[in-house]
DNA sequence: AAATAAATTTAGACAAAGCTAAAAAATTGT
DNA sequence: ACAATTTTTTAGCTTTGTCTAAATTTATTT
C-alpha cells in the first residue's frame, strides 16, 4: 500500500475508517451526523476533524455538503482495513481466538505502524485473501476482490465455498452446527435445493447432509471464485 | 499480572517503564532530569506527569526528592515489560525478524490492551522465559528469574547456555559468526580457557572450536540455570 | 412561500501533555 | 558559611481532540 509519508494520529485513522465504511453503505457523500454516531462523538467534533482531514487532502469537504474520501484517503482507509483483517486472521488461526472475539483487539492492532511487520505477518499467515468473517483483505496496493460472502439460501446449485460466518449466533444454533459437524472454515458444495421447502443438500467433509431453509439462511459461505 | 483496573494513557505507561528501568540502574529514587533525558522531554513536563502518577499512587514522590515506583507501579511496569518481551519473541521466532530489528515495533505492541491476547500469545510461543536479547520475561504475577546473560569471557569453565546476543554488531563480526557456524539460539558449553591469551574452547552443535578473547567478550550467553 | 424542523457549523471552554522562562530549593566549591 | 551552580518546580502558553450552547444553513410541511 503506497505508504503515506505523513504522520496520522490514532483519531484521524479512526475517522478515515469510519468515513470509508459509511460511504460503502451509501456510496454518496457522508453526513456529519452519521460520522458522529459511528464515532460515538458529537457533530461539532466531527466538523472540526473533517476540516483537519480536508487540510491534509484526505477528504473532500464542502460546508454543509457532507464529506467523501479523496483517493489518498481511500488508500489510507484500505491500508488500515488490510491491517485490521490480517490481525484478525492471526488471532483466529494462530492464537485460537474464536472469530467473534477478535474485533476489539484488532481495532487496537490495526494502528501499529510498521510496513515490515505487516508484510511479514501476511507471509506468516500464508497471504490470506479473506478474514475470519469472510471479508476480503486488500493487498499492499489497495486492491481486493469484492466480497462474495453469501448466505447458502442465496447461492445457486453447485456453488462451492468456505463457511465463514453465521447470521444468528444464538447458542441453540451454534449447538446445532456442532452436532452436525459444521464448523467455520469447512468447505461446502451445494448439491441440490428443494423447490417445495427451500431445504438444501450440501456436501461436507463428513458426507452430504440436508439442511432446512432456516439453517441455509443463517450460514454464510465465502465463494472461492476465479481471481 | 494483577490487572490494573484503571485506564492508563500511552504516555503514563511510558513514564512508568522509564522510571522502572532507571531505578534498576540506580536502585535509588530517580531524578527528574534523568527521566526527562530518557523520555526525550523537558524536566518541567516530567514534574507534571510525576504529580499525576503520584495522584494515582503509581509512584512515591516528594518535591525535590526524586521519584520511585510504588508496588502498584512496579506491577504495571512489569506487565508492560512482559508484553514487550513476549512480542519480541513473536517477532523473532514467528515472523523472522532479526533480534536487533524488533525493539521499535515492540514499543508499540506493548501498549495493546487485552489480557486474553497476552495469555494466548504466551501459550502460542511456548511460554518462553527470555526474550531474543536474553532478558527475562516476567510471568503474569510479575515474577521472573534474574537475568543471567553474560559474556563468554566472564563465564566460568563448564558453563552452558544459549547464545542470545552480541556486543559488537559490525558486519565483519557477524560474518565471522556465520563462517564459524555460530548463530543466535545455539547452545554452547565452555570447555576450556587459556590463561595465556584468554582464548576459549567451546562446544557447539558442529563440534568444538577455539575462539579468541576478543570474540569471547562479544558474545552473550543466557545461562540455563536452576529456577 | 413561509414557517418549522433538522442538520451543520461556529464560538468559546476544557483536559492531556507538552513547552519556555522565571523562581525556588538543593548541592557544591572554596 | 555563603556564593555559585545545578536541579527542580511553578506559572503561563500551545496543540489535539473533545464538549456545550448558540447561530446558521438546508430540508420539510403545510
From TrEMBL, chains A, B:
GO molecular function: DNA binding; DNA-binding transcription factor activity; protein dimerization activity; transition metal ion binding
Keyword Transcription: yes
Domain of life: Bacteria
Subcellular location, principal: cytoplasm
Record key words, sorted: Activator, Cytoplasm, DNA-binding, Manganese, Repressor, Transcription, Transcription regulation
Location(s), subcellular: Cytoplasm
PROSITE patterns to which the protein is assigned, alphabetical: HTH_DTXR
HTH dtxR-type domain segment(s): 8-70
Entry's Gene Ontology cellular component terms: cytoplasm
Keyword Cytoplasm in record: yes
One Pfam family it belongs to: Fe_dep_repress
Family: Belongs to the DtxR/MntR family.
Biological role: In the presence of manganese, represses expression of mntH and mntS. Up-regulates expression of mntP.
Quaternary context: Homodimer.
Designated name of the protein: Transcriptional regulator MntR
Organism: Maribacter arcticus
